[in-house]
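Usage example:
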Amino acid sequence: MTKNLRVKTSKLIDETYKISFKFNGSTYYGYKGDTLASALLFNDIHLVGRSFKYHRPRGIMTAGSEEPNAIVQLHNNTSRTEPNVRATEIEIYEGLEASSQNCWPSVNFDIGGINNFLSPVLPAGFYYKTFMWPASFWEKYEYFIRKSAGLGRSPTEPDPDIYEHKYIHCDVLIIGAGIAGIVAAKTAAKNGYKTLLIDEKPYLGGSTIYQNSEHFKINNQISSSWLEKEINEIKKIENLEIKTRTSVAAYHGYNFLLARENLTDHIPLEQRNNKIRHRLLKIRAKKVITATGSLERPLIFNNNDRPGILLSSAIEKYANFYGVACGEKNVLFTNNDSAYETALSLYQKGINVEAIIDNREETDSKLIKETEKNNIKVYKGYTVVDTYGYKRINKVSIMQLSKDGQKVIGSKISILCDCLGISGGWTPAVHLFTQSGGKLKFRDEDQVFIPKEYSSDQISIGSCNGDFTLDEILSTVPKAIKKFLNLKKIDYEDFEIKSSFNKSKRNIWLLPSDKILGKTKPFVDYQNDATAKDIKLALREGFRSIEHVKRYTTTGMGTDQGKLGNMHALGIISETTGSKMGELGTTTFRPPYTPLTFGTIVGRSVGEYFDVSRKTAIHEWHVENKAEFENVGQWKRAWYYPKNGENMHDAVQRESKAARDSAGILDASTLGKIDIQGTDASEFLNRVYTNAWSKLAIGKCRYGLMLNEDGMVYDDGVTTRLGENHYIMTTTTGGAATVLGKLEDYLQTEWPELDVYLTSVTDHYATVSVCGPNSKKIVSQIIPDLDFSDKNFPHMSFKNAKIGNINCRVMRISFTGEHSYEINIQANYGKSVWEKCMEAGKEFNITPYGTETMHLLRAEKGFIIVGQDTDATMTPIDLQMDWIVSKKKYDFIGKRSLYRSDTIREDRKQLVGLLTENPNEVLEEGAQIVSDIKKTPIEMLGHVTSSYYSPNLKKSIALGVVKGGKNMMGQKLVIPMENKQINVTVADPVFLDKENKRLNA
Amino acid sequence: MFVINCPYCGEREQSEFKAGGEAHIIRPKQPTELSDDQWAEYLFMRKNIKGVQFERWIHTHGCRKWFNVVRDTSNDVIKAVYKMGEKPPTK
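Running the assembly step on the lines above writes:
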């Protein structure tokens, strides 16, 4: 190293602790406490990356989370690689490896840099305008555009780190641990509030903590020393929790905030294993104090983006906090007093300041006098018109500003330099405030937006509230806190403040140059390469809304979200269009304030899909017997049981045949079960089902259809009367929760007078359904005490029984059309009952079947499946189920809707059976049904809802909905497919055993 | 995400609740006597105003009770919470 840029020991940097790291393959070292940015600057490296569009060389601009340029890729080609990490935020650790982004082959020689010379033909909207024609070429363009899009590279391997989420509830949350935040935290905590103080930096104290000037004193102590004592005090307060390296990402309504706590990004990789990397804090605070500070503004002038150009406050921080000089020949360019603070800090540390260029012509303050006294040349009323040096600034040229600030006059003066500090004043960090729903107002004196109306119990204090100077902060903050927390007195009432800062400022959004605007590059958004020219072009092309200009020019759309330049974009729009800043408004400040990793967002929800997966009590048996499963709602249901390498079709054909020829067994545990009790239970069922229930005898079962109030079929199932005031209702598997919800809704809100109680018992029972001509022989073997005669136990009835000494309910009900029994037993006995049935059914070749076979068997019988054969547009009449709609009942849910003008139309889509001309041709579910394909446009009559090959009927069968289908029996229709037309005949939807002989077989 | 003061359980996160649309729409006692238009009014017509709105909410992941909420839809400020069957606050 040729220069020693470590200027003076800083107490915040541990010079005894050396840390080595790699940047673009070379090894460097820095000290504990350094960020990557400060360590690079210490090594005299300014060129860190290339800009997005023009690939211009870019360096470190800031010392904080607002950094637009110095974004790097960490640990490239490893599982921990991360793009777009701000060098100004990442603390160095042993073994850190960082590399430049958006450049190839290297940051020093980047092919993409050619875009810089092509920039005259790459204006705002270039891509939109150029790649529109011819439309068919888009696919070709896209390949190249995609290749050049994006910054950095995302990891390709799974993330090895652990993340978690945590809820925090507190009385007072303070965001930002600068001087205002510290004062607030101490006051809140000492007054008994459970307080949480958060700061994104690894240390407390904000920018005051490294202020080391005689010009800023509190009670006769240098401000940083005073603050240090306060910090030491608050660390001892018990009900105050302090979280550093924690960045608030979002501020939602009702004081709900999300923050990311960074736990391991600053320690060496090998120490990170098994530690939590980031924690997403979900904070609900009763009161919030926002003390997020302010961001220094850049100045917008020609070539204001070269490496070596930094914010003036950043140069000060690098010198005072990190003890690093950003250059040996510093020039500062300002429109306010801030740069003089920097100049004096540098002077104090022996860092050379060549000159200060100040926009203001007539200005004077103690700071300026002191600066001039130290022989630093001050050019008042001047502006920088250009900068030189491709990969590092080496010269600025300056000219005098005209009185109105719109032109430059006189002759050019050149000043050699290797670092230029710029200061355009300060912008309150109101991002979180506006996210919370707060309204801003514009303050004309210094051209800033400040909080005006709060939407929740919160205040903004300090410089984020527009109080920038030390005396302003300390005179306003204690008063504000006192009022906000309703305190009688507060410790901080009498201060003796010395602050030499003069607030005068000369705000010129776009500084003039000796060249015409078209020949200059005044960057507004550094990361996205949006210039003042682009904004003016957008306005000329007719864009007016700030939101539109933003999207057209991409201003403020980078990873930094335009923290530096957005105000200038607004200012330029306002000046160009002649509208007032306050009326223009701002673009929306969206969360997150700084980017979050995906890991932080998902927390522990990684790996297998984080959703409940419900399994029946018999699930293990299905797994052991090689069932394939299908998801039905959250349930895993056995789909079919392939044997000897069968495919699904073969398995389903075998299962279906066995169930009708001898015996089949189905796990029906997933059906929703609702226990209904109360003296009005029958009346309740009368109101929710379309058919009548009052006369259902105890011990009998009845099928019911439930409608929505609009008359459309909502759910169906069998309900059994267990006692005088006791029913058990079954619902579809997927509808269980919503049916219960709907019933509760009516009970609680429409019919609170009914004495009815609902309890979900779906999980309490396992249901084994045995069907087929031999089902009675099988079930009677395992329940020998029960009389299974048709007289004692007819179809649609239920019996209490015992298997061993375990109570169970046996229903003789059927969804297949076969003689069948459903055994409901306490869930933990489900598997053993299933196994008993399998054992007893061995001699009858009892065949387990899954949902696919169940669907096929019921389709043979023309039984509907709600949600497959119906959507939310089918009434029971459309389903040809008029028989279940009671004409006698005065009212039930949906009744009135069944004779609305729309529901009585004859040409509604109605459920019909479909038979193919070729009995071996199986239709595709969802296929469209038409009558005439020659007449265009072809009228779509309906679609196929269920379709199977029936092994029992030895032909293809299907259900479908067809406009006016009820009256089309026997009519021929066509199903047009991609390469053919399939001829079908409309048929009765009941294909098998119309007389229901099998039920009693 | 806002906080709702369930009249049965107290303050809970919004994520525990489900909204159930406009409140105080009473199911007609004699639907069969209504014209199509009158029935449609009950069935389909709902207000969706920017400002103070009376709504039904249910504490789905809690007591499963329905209740009424008076909410300003423009800023989610909840002005009142009251049980089913109780009279809505007038002011």
